[in-house]
Write a structure and sequence with these properties.
By secondary structure, this protein is α+β, with helices and mostly antiparallel strands. The protein has three helices and six strands; from the N terminus they run βαββββαβα. A hairpin with a 2-residue loop joins β3 and β4. The radius of gyration is 19 Å and the shape is flat.
Length: about 130
């Protein structure tokens, strides 16, 4: 069965704020074991935590500006790239993350072969050629 890549984006990464040091250590130990298991199974391909500082760049009225800044609870605190047979399988893998019951949210997104704008341009080019 062919596998596709999925990006798991970790949001609401302040799940630990109300927990004791022992609780945090126990959950992190289980989380590290989860990462190691995914790596041993060949599912985990890459990933990193993200620092809490950064900037958002957008183009408005001809000027490049920083912001608007995403609310902390919506910001991405880390990611991993995995391989799975389907979106359902990728979601099942994400649910196994030991931080999810503590409030971590995991957004699961399929990695696309090409940009949606490029895909649309190719379709329009093909239609215009006919």
């Amino acid at each position: 069965m062919s596998k596709s890549q999925y990006l798991l984006l970790f949001r609401d990464t302040n799940w630990h704020r109300e927990l004791s040091l022992n609780e945090i250590q126990e959950i992190m130990s289980r989380t590290n074991a989860w990462f190691e298991r995914l790596a041993q199974q060949g599912i985990y391909k890459a990933g990193q935590p993200l620092d809490g500082v950064g900037a958002t760049v957008s183009y408005q009225s001809g000027t490049v500006v920083d912001g608007p800044f995403t609310e902390t609870k919506e910001s991405v605190g880390g990611y991993i790239l995995i391989e799975a047979a389907s979106l359902e399988e990728a979601v099942a893998i994400a649910r196994e993350n030991p931080m999810v019951p503590c409030g971590l949210k995991v957004e699961v997104r399929p990695v696309s072969e090409d940009c949606p704008a490029s895909r649309l341009a190719k379709q329009k080019l093909c239609t215009a050629s006919v």
